[in-house]
Amino acid sequence: MGATHVTVTIRNPAAPDRTWEGLFLVDTGATDCLVPKQHLKAIGLEPKGQRTYELANGAELKLDVTTADVEFMGEIVGGTIIFGDADAEPLLGVTALESVGIEVDPLNQRLKRLPAVRLKRFVERIDVNAAG
C-alpha cells in the first residue's frame, strides 16, 4: 500500500493573507497536523503551548503547537499544528480530515468525501437526554 498526499494551505487566522502551501502526507495515525517550523514562523505563527506526542516506536516527545486554518480539497478547518523539524515531511492528521467529512480510501490511495460530516454520537446523546 502506498502513501496518499494532498496539497494543503496553512493560513494564519490573525492575518489571512499570510499562507504557506505544501504537499502533505495524509497520516491517519497522526491526530494533528505537522509543518516544518520555518514555514509556520514565515507566516507569523508562534507556539501557543506544548503537547506530548507518542511516536510510532513508543517514544514520547514534547513539541511546540499552535492553531491555524487548514485548507484542502475546497474545505477549511481550524486545527492544531505541530512545529516540526526543518526537514520534516508535512503531515495532515486525522482530526482535520474527519472535521470536514473526508476519509482515506487505502485501496485506491485517495481521499474521498463522505456524503455528510458524521454527527451521529452527538445526535443520539441529544435524543437520549430529550427523552429523559
Description:
This protein has 132 residues and is α+β, with helices and mostly antiparallel strands. It has a single domain, classed as Cathepsin D, subunit A, domain 1. The protein has three helices and nine strands, in the order E-E-E-H-E-E-E-E-H-E-E-H. Strands 1, 2, 3, 4, 5, 6 and 7 form a seven-stranded mixed sheet that branches. The chain has a two-stranded antiparallel sheet with strand order 8-9. Strand 1 and strand 2 (19-27) form a beta hairpin.
SSE inventory with pairings:
Elements: E1 5-11, E2 19-27, E3 33-36, H1 37-42, E4 49-54, E5 60-72, E6 75-84, E7 91-93, H2 94-99, E8 102-105, E9 110-113, H3 120-131
Parallel strand pairs: 2-7, 3-6
Antiparallel strand pairs: 1-2, 1-5, 4-5, 5-6, 8-9
Summarize the structure.
This protein is an alpha+beta fold. Helix content is 18%, strand content 45%. Strands 1, 2, 3, 4, 5, 6 and 7 form a seven-stranded mixed sheet that branches. Strands 8-9 form a two-stranded antiparallel ribbon.
Number of helices: 3
- Please report which band the strand proportion falls in: under 5%, 5-15%, 15-25%, 25-35%, 35-45% or over 45%: over 45%
The quaternary structure here is single chain
- Considering DSSP H and I runs of 4 or more, what fraction of the residues is helical? 10-25%
Indicate how many domains the architecture comprises. 1
The CATH C-level name is: Mainly Beta
CATH topology: Cathepsin D, subunit A, domain 1
Largest sheet: 7 strands, mixed
Report the mean per-residue pLDDT as an integer.
Answer: 88
- How many β-strand runs? 9
- CATH 2nd-level architecture: Beta Barrel
What's the gyration radius in Å?
16 Å
Please name the fourth-level CATH homologous superfamily: Acid Proteases
Termini separation comes to 48 Å
What structural category characterises the helix and strand content?
alpha+beta
- The coarse silhouette is globular
**What is the N-to-C order of secondary-structure elements (H for helix, E for strand)?**
EEEHEEEEHEEH
Low-confidence parts: none
